[in-house]
Structures are given as structure tokens and as C-alpha cells.
Model the fold of this input.
Amino acid sequence: MITTSVKELLKSTDYDKEVTVQGWVRTKRDSKQVVFIAINDGSIIHNIQVVANIESFLEETLKSITTGSCLLVNGTLVKSLGQGQTVEIQAKEIKLYGGADESYPLQKKGHTLEFLREIAHLRPRTNTLGAVMRIRHAMSYAIHKYFNDNGFFYLNTPVITGSDAEGAGEMFRVTTLDMKNPPKNEDGSIDYKEDFFGKETNLTVSGQLEAETAAMALSKVYTFGPTFRAENSNTPRHLAEFWMIEPEMAFYDITDNMNVAEDMLKYLVRYALENCMDDLTFLNNMYDKELLNRLNTVKDVTFKRITYTEGIEVLKSSNKKFEFKPEWGSDLQKEHENYLVEHFKSPVMVTDYPKGIKAFYMKLNEDGKTVRGMDVLFPYVGEIMGGSQREENYDKLLARIREMGLPEKEMGWYLDLRKFGTAPHSGFGLGLERLIMFITGMSNMRDVIPFPRTPKNAEF
Ligand code: 4AD
Ligand code: MG
Done:
């Protein structure tokens, strides 16, 4: 059945034309002679109003139309005299696909986001989740478009891997061994040679290491895929399963890397403002009156660039009482990130972190103490990106792997990249859900992904 989307119909000026629309009933209002039915099909946040003359329909037909039910309506598109819409449909034929009784949980407006999480299978039918999901789609498309237009190739990296790219060890094991009775080595440890892949495997925490292999051939690549971290942190900014975008560029140093990061983030914010205004306006009015201001500021402002050492100085010389005292050598906490962003009144790119708090692959600076890492700190969400120039020197990388006690043999292929035609290169990781939180103003990451995975929660 070919129908016209609500989005198309609301734009149409083909008055008196016969049209067909299909969608779900948001509200129904009876008056003496007519019934008003607001239909939404998810193509746009707005509903189209259907007007059904009581005399033209059987009473039971009109009765069966309830909030949440699904309809096909055939009728005439007419100029609307009512407020709030330019067109409406004068119904000629109504077909009920599926009714919904009083137990339909989305009867009235104004449910809490917490409640909606419990009905994640139905929440896409709310204005809020609909808006968020359309924006999530638009941002995913814009990310692919940005890279495509700038000469990058999309690369699919494995979800199941044997390596721990970030060296943080927060991984989900992948195994087919019998949990109750696993095969054992002589010393009592589990014998993974018996496992499906003949070795220990886990869900990937990052596609970066594999992306580097492709960058050393195609020059500019990016990954965009699901990423898994078994951090037991129940915060509004962490998921156990999230989506990460990781560009990797040969011949780019840390400054080139930062330029791409800044250009891309501004492009994405502009794209949202140019293409998602209906949804953004709704979210701005409903949840966060500062949202549009924030987006408009970020799209034009030049991001502040500071070193970690400068950042620590700023924090130390502030009068603010931090829960965690800023100290050279320790990681920046959320409160520190927030302070820096507020202090500079713009996104902040922090570089040259102490090597002790960053991953093994980051390029060592001449001082021998800091590495060429970069984090992008954003208003509202904190760290939105993390990246670095990579260590391209074989000996230095090997020394780092040994120093950190990483499995040297397992990393043979990664070291090979430095053995055969090594090149300076850089990249970063953008957390899709952090980006969507920033763009939508949603304050909990569980509300920007259809089915969130968090500690003790894998419903649906
Ligand atoms: O800073 P991270 O750990 O960097 C990497 O994984 C590098 N391999 C990236 C690279 O250089 N190619 O993660 C990158 C981003 C973070 O800045 C954050 O936006 C997001 O991924 N992120 C998470 N998002 C949701 N839930 C989590 N548990 C996240 N952990 C990281
Ligand atoms: Mg990071």
C-alpha cells in the first residue's frame, strides 16, 4: 500500500486531492457532529488531523478508534480552519489495523523518562523518543556524509576480538565453554585452547587498532560500530554497549587531528540545526530552554586548546572546592572538565597528558613524561571525544608495551605496522551517545539509544 507520509501531507497544498495516510492515533476528540483524530506515523513530530463526520461512519467504527490504535485513513486533503495546522483530512474511509484498550500505557501526556524506560518497546511512540530517534538517525547519516565528502573510507572492524585496545581490561568475555565444567590446564586455570576460537576472546572496546592497519593502506578510514565496556559505572553518561566512530588518518599529526575533530563536531551541530529544527524546538521547549543557544554557540566558536599541564594550573588557581583535588598526574574528573568548559566558555581540547593515565599507543613527547593525546570536552556532556597521535616508532612502542606488561606476542601484528612502512598517524573516537546527548539536551544516556545496556539491565 503506497501512502503519503504525514510529513509530506503537512507540506502539501494539493487541496481537495484524495490521500491515504497510515499511522497511530495520538488523541481523539469528539464533538457533536465530528470526531477529530490526531494521527502520527513517526515521519515528523507533528500529527495530521483527521476529521470524521459522525453521520458517515458506523458508531462502532468510531468507537473502536482509541489512543494507541493503528489506522488507515482515506479521504480528502483540505485546508484546515482549526488552529495549529494548515491542512487536515476529511475522512471517507477508515480501516482499523489494530485497536488498543485502556491498558495502553501512553494514554495521557507527561510520563516521566524513567517510566518510559520501563516500556522501551512502546516509547518510540512518544514525541520525545521519536524526536531523539530522528535526530540520532540524522547524526549517523551526517557522520557518514562528512567522512565520505572528505575522502575517508568506511571500515568494518570485528566485534569479537582477542585484543584489549584500551588496556583497561573492562571487557565482556565471549566463550562457548561449559561454564559449569570448563576444561582446565594442569595448574587449574581455564584452558582456552578448547574454546571456540582456541583462545580468549571478548567483545571489542574499540576498533582503533584494526583501523590503524587500514589507515596504513587507504590513508583515511573510519569505523562506526557497536562498542562494549564492562565498566561497572552506573552513571548517566556510560553504557555497557554504545556506538563509537573512530577515524584514523595516515600523515596526520596531533594538530591535524584536532582540526578534523573540531571541524567535524561543528559540521554535525550545524547539520542538526539545519535539518532537525522541528525536533530540536520541541526538545528545547520541553526539557532544556538553553539547548538551541548552546548549539548555536558551539557551531561558531573557536574551540579552546590547552595542554593538560595548563589545565591543571587553571584548576589549581581557581577558588572552587573540588571533590577531587586537581593534581598533576591524575585523570581529570567530570567536575574538572565542567569547570574548564565553563571557565573558557567554549569546548576545550586538552592535549599532552601524563603517559601514566593514557593508553599505550599514544605518541611519547620529547619530555618523556607526556603523550600526544587529546580529549575534547564539551559543555553539558563533558568528554565527547578521546584521541591521539599514535606512536609510530617501533622501538618506543615495544618499550611501552613491555613497560605496561601487555601481551607482546598478541600485539605482533600491531607492531608490524611500525616495522613495515611506518608513518605518522592520528585518530580519535567520538561517542555517538555523548554526541546525541549534547544535540538533544537529554540528560541521561539511557534516553538516546533505543535499548540501553547498563549494569543489571539488559531488558528487551
Ligand atoms: O576515550 P576513549 O576510551 O577512546 C578510545 O577508545 C580510543 N580508542 C579512540 C581512538 O583514538 N580511536 O573513548 C572514546 C569516546 C569517549 O570520548 C566517549 O565519548 C565514548 O567514546 N565512550 C563512551 N560512551 C558511552 N559509554 C561508555 N561507557 C563510553 N566509554 C567511552
Ligand atoms: Mg577517553
Observations:
- The longest strand covers residues 18-30.
